[in-house]
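Q: Convert this sequence to structure tokens.
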Amino acid sequence: MDVIRCLPELPGQNPQCEGVNQSRILFTSKVCDLHCVMYSIQQAPDSIPTDGQIKYQLDAGKAHGVTKHTEFNIYSDKHRSTTIGSVVVTSIAPLESYCTPLTTLPNPLPKPAYAVRAGIGDGQDISLFIEPKDALYEMLCHESEKPKRHFRLVKSPEQAVLIIRTQEGQVEFEVMDLICCEHGLECMPLNNVQTNDPDHLFAILRAAADFYWYLCHSNKQGSLAQWVQLQCFELVDSGTTDDSGNIVFQKSGQILITDGAFELKAQAKDALPSDYETVYGYKVTNNSKVPLYVALFYFDPSKLSIVKYYLPPTATNNKVDFCLPASGCLTIGYGEGGWPPRKYTLCQNQTTDVSFLKLYVSTKYIDYSSIEQKTLFERSRNDERVDTRRKRDLWDACTFPIIQRKEC
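A:
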């Protein structure tokens, strides 16, 4: 992504980096750390320091998940070699925020300057309930009183997002989301969170705060989503392969939705390999007359993981082409979208699981790549949903006719 963004202006050209691997490091299979998000910051155009304080404009707002009182450290380069100061958000617009300094900043501010989140803002912590008699209660009370906390304790289970219990040295997490509870996901299917490992526990609570913040993040005054439709299809093998030897899938034709929720088939994680695996693809339809940017993520409350299903391309100076045309559609997992289909698995002893798809839509490009989050529960393996782009052993032969004619 950085290679594309650092390209100079190319007259008449606007190169784009598309597909599921756009965040990979060149010449390796590793994926770079997406959680250190940098935003441009500059002195606000109409900033007149009548009170002695200059205001700064941050190129991130409500759509990016910024809230009032979020703190940012300021750097003069993307390598973050030296902090030149810090600011706090005092007012927010949809795509930008306005900040006042917490420390002395250079005047004028270097150009360019970059901001990295240093502390959470209003509403970005998670509400937890734990019985006062529980062994972890005192430790969580002490931790929740620290500044820049990621969780707060509430007095009743009805106020909580998660309930924490301990039993025989293990920490259990009870899910309070109404949809999860309605469909049988009342407790995270985990057995490896120890009461004597507070660092692991606090890392999980930070992950839970980010997970539920992004899951609930929405525009309460928004009207754009009503013009966009998301559909899910079971995919079948088309019998053909692409130029990389991967199976090309096509939709079966049935839309898999019941009472506003997708009803999908999932395999047990310990199931034996099968020649047939149920795989799925998605279709986003734009019923409006304006082109849009979209980003699609899969939220798994069982493991607090967030998986990217689709992101817009990457381009120089964020001059990204629209990915969803006006009155058009975008396919994910099949067709020409460049993103893999998906399959789903259940943990041991599970018969039902609940997860969520979150679709972001906007008329201006927004980088949502930092939302992705790996699970912290199973340290020895990556337990995200995997794609099913499978390669076949291929062979082929070509016959070319040669027409020989007598010379005159």
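The radius of gyration is 25 Å.
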